[in-house]
Amino acid sequence: MPPARCSRARDAPFPAPPPHRVIEFQPLRRDDLQLVRAWLARDHVRRWWRDPIDEAIAKRLDGIEGDRTEQYLIVVDGSPIGMIQTYLVADSPEWEQIVGAEPGLAGVDLLIGDEEATGRGLGPQLLEAFVREIVFARAGTNACVATVEEANRRSWRAFEKAGFRHVRDVVEDGLPHRLMRLDRRYAP
Are 153 and 134 in contact (CB under 8 A)? Predict the structure, then answer.
């Protein structure tokens, strides 16, 4: 009797590993706001990031000039492709009401502005690196949360692939969202 063979054909190719990417998080500067403004105007961003552009830029400027939100330009292989931010949930009573009050709870928001960078598996890599290098590097941060619009499947799948889990549904801006959470002890 011939030896048992695995179900995969011996000569079948294995999927190629994802390309090695150099990911950097550079503190957002005033000079970056024109680029952020352009990203916010793109259809693939406007669909999910509905704040008026001028209001969104004013919030970014507040963060640059002293707000406690930490904002970063995402640079991949030397090219800026988006922005990401983190903050302590306790710094926003409005946000605390949505996600719950808990010491050491951080929030994260991700925007991939370069449409060519979407749909390539980059979101989970960005989230994993950011949570590891920035969010959980802050002493006392025990968990990280994000709300993702229920209809934005690509986004909440990216959070799941980065280790976040869907803990419950919440309503934000009148729309159903998934509350995604990653505890430090389960972080990649």
Answer: no
